[in-house]
Amino acid sequence: MATTTPVHPVDEVPPVRQLAAFGLQHVLAMYAGAVAVPLIVGGAMQLSAADLAYLITADLLVCGVATLIQCVGLWRFGVRLPIMQGCTFAAVSPMVLIGTTGGGLPAVYGSVIVAGLAIMLLAPVFGRLLRFFPPLVTGTVILIIGVSLLPVAGNWAAGGAGAQDFGAPKNLALAAFVLAVVLGVQRFAPVFLSRIAVLIGIAVGLAVAVPFGFTDFGGVGDADWVGISTPFHFGAPVFETSAVASMLVVALVTMTETAGDLIAVGELTGRKVAPRSLADGLRADGLSTVLGGVFNTFPYTAYAQNVGLVGMTRVRSRWVVATAGGILVLLGLLPKLGAVVAAVPAPVLGGAGLVMFGTVAASGLRTLAEVDFRGNHNLTVVAVSVAVGVLPIGVPTVYEKFPDWFQTVMNSGISAGCLTAIVLNLLFNHLPVKAGSAVGGDPGGLPGGRGEQAVQQSREEIV
To answer: What is the predicted pLDDT for the residue at 462?
Structure first.
């Protein structure tokens, strides 16, 4: 009697109906963040409305291609996990500076292409560093990712950053209504519907928002039916030394963030990331960033908000996210469809975002539950890393007197917290300590570099 090899949930292919629903849910979760980067950069450079629209459609197209590369895989490119790709916010400040100080978009794209090539070259090096990401570090990073995303959901719930009615009670009421719908569907609906609770919440919220004047579909009629992004639409790339240097710093930051996201998804899906697959995922990031520089968009990274969606819905199939990538490609080629999705009001996204981003933080706590905190410095590692990661979120101007490269690294709570967790774990759990030094509350101390195994031994055994 023939036996079939069980398929891992990551590799399962749901029915077409479920693929479409789950995939659309992922698109809605990341859409606002995806279009924000071209809007911010293009607005700072005072581009025309037509050029802004071009940046957005180009971004959506490459987002979709990058997601397909990451999920489906192409040779040694792609981690083959449910990972959504989008423009990184870490590059916004350097790109605005490059674009507004005389270099323009050609200088931006030249630096982006070099950064993408650097990421591809450095990917194997990062892959070998996976042993420095034990549950102590990964749990801390996942927790910081979730906490750092919560202000994004808060801004959405209040009406969107910069909105004239920001914080109006009606905005928060709509967000609370969507949150209640999502929770109600999760608790009382059948299993299939509970897995698309976010999509249902957004759909119901949109249905309520339209008659109350929260959104305007006027942009749908003005949008073109078909739009194709051509290489180097804004001119041939220019390679300026200062621009390339600043974007290389961004590349290191995005690699750190992506490594944390890939490890988080590996934990959530039950397919832990190995050094080779981590390098493959980072290499896909680099390729997508090069494509971004060629096709008039920006550096790409894994989107943490979709990590939360995977954890919340427990839908672990990479083909669901690949379907979302296909939808993004369509949105990039059909601007009118993109205008429909863009009409979803920010408070609706905010209500759903509170659940998704909170789920990421809770997943970090679940990973930290595996760590032994008795008689060692692990609690200090978590405490200081979370504090450093949350600092730029609570006090956004804390590093404004520092050099630009330092701000690029530390203004991202995810990269700042991740780097801190790695360094402190090395300091307390890998480097040898002098005999007689105290560890935690044990006056006799424990030898460094022994980690949690040493904690379990009595002082006599250690001697």
So the answer is: 31
Q: Is 455 exposed, middle or buried (0-12, 13-18, 19+ CB in 10 A)?
A: middle
Q: What average pLDDT does range 80-109 have in this prediction?
A: 81
Q: What is the mean pLDDT of the chain?
A: 79
> Could you count the other beta carbons within 10 Å of the beta carbon of residue 24?
18
* Token pair recorded at residue 274: 């190995």
Distances (CA, A) of 454 to 300, 380, 429, 457: 41, 17, 10, 5
What are the tens digits of pLDDT across the range 250-302? 787 778 778 878 888 888 888 888 888 899 999 999 999 999 999 988 888 88
3-state secondary structure the chain: CCCCCCCCHHHCCCCHHHHHHHHHHHHHHHHHHHHHHHHHHHHHCCCCHHHHHHHHHHHHHHHHHHHHHHHHCECCECCCCCCCEEECHHHHHHHHHHHHCCCHHHHHHHHHHHHHHHHHHHHHHHHHHHHHCCHHHHHHHHHHHHHHHHHHHHHHHCCCCCCCCCCCHHHHHHHHHHHHHHHHHHHHCCHHHHHCHHHHHHHHHHHHHCCCCCCCCHHHHHCCCCCCCCCCCCCCCCCCHHHHHHHHHHHHHHHHHHHHHHHHHHHHHCCCCCHHHHHHHHHHHHHHHHHHHHCCCCCEEECHHHHHHHHHHCCCCHHHHHHHHHHHHHHHHCHHHHHHHHCCCHHHHHHHHHHHHHHHHHHHHHHHCCCCCCCCCHHHHHHHHHHHHHHHHHCCCCCCCCCHHHHHHHCCHHHHHHHHHHHHHHHHHCCCCCCCCCECCECCCCCCCCHHHHHCCCHHHHC
- Give per-residue pLDDT as tens, 113-122: 999 999 999 9
Q: How far apart are CA 288 and CA 284, in angstroms?
A: 6
User: Looking at the DSSP assignment, which residues form a beta bridge with residue 87?
Assistant: 300
| Ramachandran bin of 403, using left for φ above 0, alpha for ψ from -120 to 50, beta for the remaining angles | beta
Q: Which of 417, 425, 436, 300 is nearest to 364 (CA)?
A: 417
pLDDT over 80 (residue 395): yes
* Residue 148 contacts residue 389 (beta carbons within 8 Å): yes
Helix H or strand E encompassing 87: strand 85-87
8-22, 171-185, 375-389, range with the lowest pLDDT: 8-22
What is the distance between the alpha carbons of residues 377 and 374, in angstroms, rounded to a whole number?
8
- Of the pLDDT bands very low, low, confident and very high (cuts 50, 70, 90), residue 207 is confident
Helix (H, G, I), strand (E, B) or coil at 321: helix
Confidence of residue 67 (pLDDT cuts 50, 70, 90): very high
